[in-house]
Specification:
Shape: globular
Radius of gyration: 17 Å
Largest sheet: 7 strands, mixed
Order of helices and strands: EEEEHEHHEHEEEEEHHEEH
CATH class: Alpha Beta
Helix content: 25-40%
Number of strands: 13
Strand content: 25-35%
Structural class: alpha/beta
Length: about 250
């Protein structure tokens, strides 16, 4: 697995972990993220159980595990959080922030020492050594309880499955040609995003944010004007296409 620093300003950093060539062939490639501020860190969608050892090996090169005080799971999918039971053994003290609706499901992955902090539907925030990180509602995009993460100082939006693309493990970290990237995203969004109303609600929320970088859980990261291009593209895309297709 590779690691890449996306943002660094003083003691405030964003690091991405992705492009794991050793992952099982039929397991989809995922992006994991970590926010570090001073002596605290938060793992965002820390990944599936199958890549825990690779993730841990990358993370400890960046920061001591004692400083990982928070985790975030945008929703309940196993590729996002099935490693929880192993992180539960590795972290001496941490809190998982995730939608309230999924607590009873996520606990099936294993939680003895990690605390669960349910995020209400309206969203919320957490402080990392004084840095406020916001949880932005993204319900039904694609999960019925779902959130994006926004760091206004870094101007980074972690969007979860929104913006996801089915890419190869040797693909670049960043989207380099937006038009060429569309075919990698289109069917995923049409099939996995069930609600045009929810889609427009999320677009309205995040279009008000100052975003330099949008980081999805799969595929390339959007930078600069490609964030606006993505919102414009998604706004006109008809989603929920499986309905009536049988």
């Amino acid at each position: 697995m590779q690691s890449k620093t996306l943002y660094s300003q003083g003691e405030h950093r964003w690091v991405a972990f992705a492009r794991d060539p050793s992952k099982p062939e039929k397991v989809i490639d995922t992006n994991q993220y970590m926010i570090v501020n001073r002596d605290q860190a938060m793992l965002l969608d820390p990944g599936g159980i199958e890549l825990f050892s690779s993730m841990l090996g990358c993370v400890v090169k960046e920061i001591s595990v004692e400083h990982i005080t928070h985790l975030f799971a945008s929703h309940q999918d196993p590729d996002i959080i099935s490693s929880l039971g192993l992180w539960d053994k590795a972290l001496p003290e941490a809190t998982l922030h995730s939608p309230w609706i999924w607590e009873g499901f996520i606990r099936h992955f294993g939680m003895d020492s990690i605390k669960y902090d349910p995020i209400e539907d309206s969203g919320g925030s957490v402080s990392l050594s004084g840095l406020e990180v916001e949880f932005i509602p993204a319900h039904y995009m694609h999960s019925s309880g779902n959130f994006s993460v926004y760091d206004k100082e870094a101007k980074i939006l972690m969007s979860g499955d929104i913006g996801a693309a089915l890419d190869s493990v040797d693909a670049p970290f960043y989207v380099e040609d937006f038009d060429a990237h569309i075919p990698k995203m289109k069917y995923f969004h049409q099939r996995w995003m069930p609600s045009n109303r929810a889609k427009h609600d999320w677009i309205e929320r995040v279009s008000k944010l100052n975003v330099d970088m949008m980081c999805p859980q799969h595929g390339g990261i959007f930078r600069g004007e490609d964030f606006k291009r993505f919102l414009d593209w998604l706004d006109t895309l008809e989603v929920g296409i499986a309905v009536g297709s049988e």
